[in-house]
What we know:
Order of helices and strands: HHHHHHHHHH
Structural class: mainly alpha
Amino acid sequence: AISSMDSLPAVMIIIFITQILWVFGLHGAAITSSVWAPFAIANASANAAAVAASQAPTHVFTFGFYYGFLQVSGSGMTLGLVILMMMSKAKSLKSIGRLGVVPSLFGVNEPIIFGVPLIMNPFMMIPFVVGPVIIAGLNYLAMSSGLVGLPLWESPGFLPPGFQAFLLTLDWKAAVMAVLNVVLMTVFYYPFFKMME
């Protein structure tokens, strides 16, 4: 069961359920982490033990992977959406964007989720749910294939995009991937944001 949590389908399902719960106003990460956190923590411990023994880490799905890559700038990776809002012609969206930009940089995006709101929002539901699932799959494949370094240990959380990813892996490609996640999500959000606006 432990190894099955560190797989492409498991990671994508976890993110899908997390995002769906948010859409209905429930704290997705808080709910789903009660199931996956013990496995993610065990995986990180195994990786850290391997590194300490001068061996290669073997696990992708750790706490740091979840927060440093799949939830970078918060659930739904909304930093790009916040920047779009800051430039919006709609005064309400512009003010929420300005209010939410600093917290979003540090992975706290509840002001956006509840303020826009993204909850029960028919325009934003598709990118908010589907986008992170696609990115979770791409990130898992990038790491499991060896293209990007695996998590070596746990790193401090709630850092701006790329910082946690680098400290977690000591691989510059991981930092680039985390930033690209936000860029890709901005592309996903853009047409739906324009419809909402």
